[in-house]
Amino acid sequence: MAIRNIATRLITRNFSSSSVVPQKGTRPFQVAIDGPAASGKSTTAKMVAQRLGFDYIDTGAFYRCVTLAALSKGIDPSNPSQALQISNLAESSHIGLKTIFSTTSASKSSLPTTKVFLDSKDVSFEIRTGTVSKHVSAVAAIGPVREAVLQKVRDMGATSISQESNSGRDGLVMDGRDIGTVVLPNADLKIFLVADSRVRAERRLQELARSGSKEEVLDIETVQKDLERRDELDRTREVSPLRKADDAVELDTSLLTIEGQVDAIVQEVHRRQQAASSSSSQ
Ligand code: CDP
């Protein structure tokens, strides 16, 4: 308990001051999962969190909420003259996440669901529509928007870790584009997921079909082109571009099942936890 409290203080300080960065092994285990659009990050991250009893934060949901907030105010995110207004919205919006994990061992392989709240309204479905997806990378490229989101994500990370002794969660899994490079630069395990863009387009179409989306059914070429356009924007933007951290493990999921990639990550977490505990007991 005492060690956990010290760890909590350390991580809280990390989130409020960039000069204090807790070292690996001195706080709850952190897993950073990055990768291009539809590479399976959020499904993998949620299932890894469920298997390990960790908390989960979907950082893409924050950028999607800001995009939705802008669109619902009639702001055109692709118009650069609107950047200040969008940044103000990013600062003033209240964004909340609630992930529901299954607690029975029989349903351990079931997919946890994350509810997303924008100013207390449940927008879980609205932030995944094609219109939001189309504009989100332009919003995520605005520097002050990223600063505002980074602060919110760090606050949420600090809160989830400090409440963790109540929730019984032992660590944190975060997914996005800049987790290993910017948000959690000292993460204990960094994964960079990649997959062929055709495979990713097929997965995105299946996901849309499963969600019962009422939007116009898109063909695979259109979905693939949109993913590639978004990846290009994410990779080439000036602030926190999508890139693999030097110490990240790359996992190509083109031929892996979701269970296969979750198993690989869970095993790697166990391996690193054992290595850390045997080196600290020496
Ligand atoms: O689910 P999908 O991979 O399509 O996207 P997402 O994770 O929901 O993220 C939506 C968009 O937010 C991405 O295309 C990025 O432009 C942006 N994003 C980012 O810039 N940095 C993050 N840490 C997370 C998302």
What does this protein look like?
A 5-stranded parallel beta sheet has the order 2-6-1-7-8, with helices on both faces. Helix 2 (41-52) packs across helix 11. With 282 residues, the chain is α/β, with parallel strands linked by helices. The chain is built from 11 helices and 8 strands. The longest helix is centred in the last third of the chain and has 23 residues, at 258-280. The protein has helices at 2-16, 41-52, 60-72, 83-92, 130-140, 143-162, 164-167, 179-183, 197-210, 220-236, 258-280, and strands at residues 29-34, 55-58, 95-100, 113-118, 121-122, 171-176, 189-194, 249-252. The chain is globular. The structure holds cytidine-5'-diphosphate. Cytidine-5'-diphosphate is lined by residues 37-38, 41-42, 59-60, 63-64, 136-137, 140, 176-178, 230, 234. Cytidine-5'-diphosphate binds next to helix 2, helix 3, helix 5 and helix 10.
Summarize the structure.
By secondary structure, this protein is an alpha/beta fold.
Number of helices: 11
N-to-C order of helices and strands: HEHEHHEEEHHHEHEHHEH
Low-pLDDT stretches are 1-22
Ligand species = cytidine-5'-diphosphate
Oligomeric form: single chain
Report the strand count: 8
Approximate shape: globular
GO molecular function, one term: dCMP kinase activity
Domain Cytidylate kinase: 31-270
Protein name: (d)CMP kinase
Pfam families: Cytidylate_kin
Please name the defining characteristics of this protein.
single chain; about 280 residues; alpha/beta; 11 helices; globular; binds cytidine-5'-diphosphate
